[in-house]
Amino acid sequence: MRKTTALRAAAAATAALLTMTACSSRRDEADRDTAAGGACKGQQTTGITDDTIKLGGIYPLSGPASAYGTISKGVGAYFQYVNDKGGIAGRKVRFIVRDDGYQPPKAVEEARRLVEREKVFAVFQTLGTPSTAAVWDYLDKQKVPQPFVATGASVWGTDARHPWTIGWQPNYVAEARVYAKYLKDTKPKARVAVLYQNDDFGKDLLGGFEKAVAGSGVKVVARESYEVTDPSVSAQMASLSRSKADVLLDVTTPKFGSQALAADARNTGWNPLHIVNNVASSAAVLKPVGFKNVQGVVSATYFKDPADPQWADDPDVKTYKEALHEYAPDTDPDNQFNAYGWAVASSLHKALDSMKCPTREGLRDAVRNLKDVRVGMLLPGVTMSTGHGDAFPLETMQLMRFKGERWQLFGKPVDTREEFGPLTK
Questions:
Q1: Contact at 8 Å (CB) between 363 and 94?
Q2: What does the alpha-carbon distance between residue 359 and residue 44 come to, in Å, rounded to a whole number?
Q3: Where is the Leucine-binding protein domain (predicted)?
Q4: Domain around 129
């Protein structure tokens, strides 16, 4: 798959930073510890002992994507909950969170800190396509696992040159396929306007959508991009409204998702079906706009919404809510970003349990050999699977529509592998 300019720029920035500090990147003898016995001998055990696992995460706790920062609280609450239950295979998890402000150079700095100073076992969860792209070359050279990155860029599953990195959530092309199928089934002559972030995230979903609707009656008639440093997207929304498209595909991060929804609500002369991508679908994004202004908005998901009454008696959701109240009392359990953090942390737990060797190599291999693994917070019908030629753990999503004060699922889960075939390089 061809990398975009932004991805190449991030890699170049990484290379420059690596060159400047190459002398300090030498791993000490602890990195060459051996695991006991057989096939595990000679593999890396840095950051893992019989009693502990040290993990590091990099999130935008500040900056234009700071709404995502609360994901780390969902992850942290899960690990505290597990630690109080005895840990993972008897090992207590220490989770170290660093802030990159959604800035790729800062992400590289924090990755180096986690690996060289903190000596983490793995860098679990780098958030955002630009930040993840900036650090994966470094982590690959250091042979440090980068499991379940918090970005749906398809490159994490198609680039075999980076075996230490893998995604988790349905990739943006898979998500785009779900929206394309929905429109082809329900609005086969749809005219679509697209607002998208001008980076690999936005271009990945837009490109996947355009490919999925190719040859059908669904047409993209207008496109407007924005930069993550822009103060607002009001000008882009005004331009798109002039297209008179009957569908708006909103490919944004939370701050700009709220702005786009608000602009749509204010424009009484344009009333398109508004499809907002999953990463900007949290109630925390919609609430500032006013729930009355986002009725009928469509999105897609793959994990249980803790605010949905249908999961009120679900044992996994109940455990999540109780644990969040205990270990992160300052957070809202109904915030989907917190639920996302809990779900991805519990998914990593499953992968750690399946390691054949308690080593970095063991985790690298485990996340690429998942067979219909069930995770409590995922929707029924959604399981994790990877294997030879398939490095996408999740590729099934279900559509949802905002009604009243919450999202409501509709239709059936869509396995995009079955509907469109596997996504390959």
A1: no
A2: 5
A3: 52-403
A4: 5-170+326-394
